[in-house]
Amino acid sequence: MRWRPAPARGTGQESGVLGQGRQQGGDEDPGAAGGGAGTADGTGTADTGTGTGTGAARKVVRALPVVLIAVGLAFDLLTPPGYTGSPFFSAAPLIAAPLASLLVTLFTGVLASLAVVLLHLLNGTTWKVEALTELVTVITVSGLAVLINRVVRRSGERLASARGIAEAAQRAVLPKPAERIAGLHVCARYEAAQADAFIGGDLYAVQDTPYGVRLAVGDVRGKGLGAVEAVAVVLGAFREAAETEPTLEGLARRLERALTREGTRRDSLDSVEGFTTCVLGEIPAGAQVLRLVNRGHPEPLLLHADGRLAVLAPAEPALPLGMGELAEAWPDRAEEWPFPTGATLLLYTDGLTEARDAAGVFYDPAARLTGRVFPGPGELLGALSSDVRRHTGGGATDDMALLAVGRPGAGEPERRRTVPVVAR
Predict the structure, then answer these.
(1) Residues of the chain with pLDDT under 50
(2) Which of 184, 286, 296, 385 is the most exposed place for a label (fewest CB within 10 A)?
(3) Cα maximum dimension of the chain
(4) CA distances from 229 to 220, 254, 349 (A)
(5) In this structure, what is the dihedral angle of CA atoms 21, 23, 25, 28, given to the nearest 10 degrees?
(6) CA–CA distance, 117 with 158 (Å, rounded to integer)
């Protein structure tokens, strides 16, 4: 994560279309068929085409041990007596070991050993030294395959346990927000750039307070456990201060003090070079307005019901949180924006704007979303995630946190409905 007062955007000339949306006044976007819609559960989902291909590859690999035994039998029967299919029989249980269950691995070893015995019975060489050597070799390799299978299975169980712990930690640090908060439709999503990673330095929070619904989206400098600890500090301070601070400026100062205080107490937090870019938002009850304080973070976007899009850039840039005395020269000033019925607010981290395609062109969410209309925040984030994967070819380099908050129009149901968009 790199901070800059005015984040750069792409050229907007990327190929492809954004899925799951509709052009203003037009039919459904044909791109919806290309990218699978994500779920609104705070995590990302992969495209279904990739999963199908992976499943087919696994079936082929799992069938390979039986194929090897069949090839070994054919090789031994169709070649002169000096040739043997023993290498194929030895390889079969070794391939089954990391991929199949213990019983399947054991069955493969027994089948390979019986194949060796059968061939030598047919050739009348059962009690020759070469035949016994081949049989002992296959049995020994089969025993090693069983041992390998047990080691791999135990490692898999430990990995599954670690993943479960990571998921529990994510739910504790970044809990899934309710779909409806104080009459607003809410959806959040966190997508890690590294496979099997769950928590990084990106954060989001939504909270109903006496001053209205308050929001936070931020990005902590750095990676690893230090960044996760900084995320926990920021979110903990936000949840407490959002209930008591009457202004967003006061809330920002509370977060600043929390980072400074914990930076001096914890070795894992960088109190000198560490910082956190952040956008704080407030949507007062009964008023169609939105207040924002932007501390060096990418500008939020406001999507209107008719397809128009506004970039909510601050009048004056401000330093990120954690800059200590430097931030005192940049006093916070909350800015107010209209938040009309049917509009959706989109907040995100720089993992979105710094996503690049093969030519090095940055992803520009403003250009991609202008003129698009979505049924709700969940559909917006699902389409956006799919479009970013399409733009990058699935090779994201930074984590991405997304938060969408929509103000429902008159007559809309209390619970958001999922309206599928089907290409024609």
Answers:
(1) 2, 4-17, 19-20, 23-51, 272, 413-424
(2) 286
(3) 94
(4) 10, 17, 18
(5) -50
(6) 39
* 196, β-bridge pairs: none
Backbone angles phi, psi at 345, to 5 degrees: -95, 130
**CB count in 10 Å sphere of residue 92:** 29
Cα four-point dihedral sign 199, 186, 342, 332: negative
Residue 24 structure tokens: 């203003």
Q: What does the DSSP assignment read for 58-123? A: HHHHHTHHHHHHHHHHHHHHHS-TT---HHHHHHHHHHHHHHS-HHHHHHHHHHHHHHHHHHHHHH
CA dist., res. 320 & res. 220, Å (int): 10
The residue type at 233? V
The token pair at 192 is 């890690």
pTM beyond cutoff 0.70 = no
Q: What are the E-state strand segments in 195-341?
A: 202-209, 212-220, 276-283, 289-295, 301-303, 309-311, 335-338
Distance separating alpha carbons of residues 278 and 296, to the nearest angstrom:
7
Question: Looking at this protein, which amino acid is placed at residue 123?
Answer: N
- What is the structure's pLDDT at 423? 35
Would you say 349 and 400 are in contact if contact means Cβ atoms under 8 Å apart? yes
**C-alpha to C-alpha distance for 376 and 306, rounded to whole angstroms:** 13
pLDDT score for 143: 92
Task: State residue 144's pLDDT score.
Answer: 92
